[in-house]
Amino acid sequence: CPRPIAQSMIHLNMRAINSLIKRHIMTLSNDLRGAQLAPHSIESEEAVLPTIRSRSRVIAFQRVGDADIRPLLTDLDPADVRFILHIAQGSPGIALCLMKDPEDLAHEKQVHDQARRVWAARSLADRLSLLLPLHERGTEAEQFLRHLAITLREAPTRSRNAEKALTELIRERETNAHKQLMVQKFAMELSA
């Protein structure tokens, strides 16, 4: 599945922002026929610098209902359809990618199962070994975090402590803090 070139507009430094403005915004023709669009997706409008926000048009996209995505998922086992709908969280693009690539689907199932086992782990050592994907930055870690959040919502007994610990872990991952120490702190908070 295609991945975005820039994961987030909020991570742009001032030099990159000035370049973006000059390249995509200031070069627009006075005549609308020559106008260009520079689409960017963000999760939080407030996190983007006012310089960019003032020159942007916001289009809010809502999640697509499962009933609208289900007809796109043809020739699949009903259990796979349920899993894809659950993981896609209203994103038809994710659903279609998983439908078209059985290896990606199998990998998502594997990651999901590993994330579910984090919440069920009884010992700190087991939990730490399951959290190994979070020791690095990258798409694997982001995918694992997404599955941790989804499986926490699935848990029959959701702990407020677990929700708080996961939120803090996600927040801390945005910093340059030591990843392994963050994971250890997270695991110990869950064991408390």
What would your notes on this structure say?
The chain has 192 residues and is mainly alpha-helical. The protein is 57% helix and 0% strand. The chain has helices at 14-25, 50-53, 66-69, 78-88, 92-100, 102-120, 124-130, 139-154, 160-173, 179-191. Helix 6 packs antiparallel against helix 7 and helix 8 (139-154) runs antiparallel to helix 9.
By helix and strand content, what is the structural category? mainly alpha
Main sheet makeup: none
Distance between the termini: 39 Å
Number of discrete helical segments? 10
Order of helices and strands: HHHHHHHHHH
The general outline is globular
Average pLDDT number: 81
What oligomeric arrangement do these chains adopt? Answer: single chain
Mind telling me the C-alpha Rg?
Answer: 20 Å
List the helices and strands and how they pair.
Elements: H1 14-25, H2 50-53, H3 66-69, H4 78-88, H5 92-100, H6 102-120, H7 124-130, H8 139-154, H9 160-173, H10 179-191
What are the defining features of this structure?
192 residues; mainly alpha; 10 helices
Describe the structure concisely.
The chain is mostly helical and 192 residues long.
